[in-house]
Amino acid sequence: MAILIGIDIGTSSTKVVAIDERGSLLSEAAQSYDYSQPRPGWAEQSPDTWWRAACETIRQTLDNLGTPRGEVAGVGFSGQMHGTVMLDDRRRPLGDAIIWPDTRSSAEVDDIRAQLGAERLGLLTANPIAAGFMAATLMWLRRNDPERHRSISHVLLPKDYVRLKLTGELGTDASDASSTLLFDTAHERWSSEMLECVGVDEAVLPPVHNSCEPTSGVCAEAAAATGLAHRTPVVFGGGDLAMAALGSGVVQPGAACVNIGTGGQFFAVADTPLYDPQLRIHTFRHAMPGRWTVGGALLSAGMALQWFCENVSSFGSYSEVSQAVATVAPGSDGLLFLPYLAGVRTPHMDCSARGAFVGLTTRHTKVHMARAIAEGVAFALRESQQIVGHIGVPVDTLVASGGGTRSTAWKQILADVLKRPVRSVAVDEQAAVGAAICAGVGAGVFPDVQQACEQAVRLEPGRTEPDPRQTEFYDRLFELFQKLYPDNRHTFAELGRLCDGDR
Fold it and tell me: What would the pLDDT profile of 403-432 be if each residue is shown by its tens digit?
């Protein structure tokens, strides 16, 4: 039996799974952490927090397996995308990493858009630029922290730092590189024009590999820290979106994945690097050769419900609030929620946007508010679905992933709002499972990605069907939801100017 390990370096936790070649879950472990916000709009994490979490969860996973560590056939990585890890010439972190929820680089985003224009930006990267992306962060550092910027010898994405510590090898993969906005997604190379625009020397960027390509393997120091055998095969892995696609079996055109984790995503598979000319959605390289993922992102999905539980309501657990949501009728008794607690990416690309409950009355309870949050997240994901359809990417099959989709009520809301049957994967933690699948391909356990997914990904036998009685009702609510941001955009911006330090 081949044991394959997948490591997912997330925003709120590191998760490790061990599976066999049939996709059966053998062991799993997780360690939670938070990110710091030293100033309003900033979001940072210590790279060594990720490494310590990876070491502890790998050891726990191996202990749970109870098998000799030499039986691990391969290790793969998944990770939060867009973040910037800066290293000096001895490969030590230059302070905390600046991660994807960070909005300090909004002025740089405006400057990049003005300098290049939407048409040129689309041709160069197939993507919109947003605060928190590596390109904008590096431009901000050059302008606002020039001493640290001059000290940079290497720049990595979050999972690539942990893999560096595990193997001693610098590198990234095309799926994660395409999320930096320094990468020519269509031609799979760093973009010299984007680098010149941002002021980055290509020498600080890592070489780009395929997700399933093997590295030099676990180094001796990391073997001692993790419990893995020295020289255990390790592959480069990919961004969490591409890895969630693998772990969900979403690798062929016509398939799409809806993910509700800390953030949320709706993305479909395309066999050409199609992109939205209005740059409202993203086109990233898939881990599957000859494929791209096309879709949109929501910055606060599960995070919105977690915020509500921890700061507003008295719900004691995610399970409790999920059960309560099912007791409220669709539409939350006339209550809408705009889930822009951390700004909005798709479709408005506005880091000054804010969340809002609209329609509150004295008859509304915390349960109505919780359901309105779940419905608001679904409406926001439908905006991505709508744009994906408009640019000609078909969607026939919809697979749900992420912690939020463990909720039966939330899955039913997604099916009704997105008007598609929703399938679920039998094994949770799809991004970590996708990383393990990559490891299996790189180690020769599977001949290729397609056969790996056919062999190792198992969908639940049933599916959540749209309720015809609710889809038309949700259509009307979606029309109202789409008016909330345009009607309040200037208010959001003014609130930011008044309350976030620009008084």
Answer: 788 888 999 999 999 999 999 998 888 999
Q: In what helix (H) or strand (E) does residue 238 lie, and over which residues does it extend?
A: strand 238-239
Closest among 36, 115, 481 to 298, alpha carbons compared: 481
Residue 221 is part of which domain span? 3-241
pLDDT of residue 66: 86
Q: Could you tell me if 13 and 68 lie in one domain?
A: yes
The residues, any chain, with a CB within 8 Å of residue 178's CB and separated by 6 or more, are 125, 126, 127, 185, 283, 284, 285
SS3 readout for 295-347: EEEECCCHHHHHHHHHHCCCCCCHHHHHHHHCCCCCCCCCCEEECCECEECCC
Catalytic residue among 176, 240, 276, 350: 240
CATH of the domain at 167: 3.30.420.40
Q: What is the pTM of this model?
A: 0.91
Note whether residue 258 is domain-resident.
yes
- Three-state secondary-structure class, residue 45: strand
Distance CA 266, CA 244 (A): 11
Can 271 be counted among the known catalytic residues? no
d(C-alpha 19, C-alpha 8), whole Å: 14
- Statement to judge: residues 283 and 166 lie in one domain: no
pLDDT at position 500, please?
67
Domain match, 271 and 237 both = no
Asked if residue 263 and residue 228 are part of one domain, the reply reads no
